[in-house]
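Q: I'm building a small set of examples for a reading group on sequence design. Run inverse folding on the following structure and report the sequence directly after it, with nothing in between.
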């Protein structure tokens, strides 16, 4: 069980670090905003 949970925790921790950075989140938000503005109102 411990062996199975270890990789999961590491992956989760990695994801948390990326989310904390906010770089990916910011890029995604900016992209969505640009796409929304590009759409004809």
């Amino acid at each position: 069980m411990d062996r199975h949970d270890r990789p999961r925790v590491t992956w989760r921790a990695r994801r948390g670090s990326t989310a904390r950075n906010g770089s990916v989140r910011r890029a995604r938000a900016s992209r969505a905003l640009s796409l929304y503005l590009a759409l004809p109102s």
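The helical segments are 2-21, 23-38.
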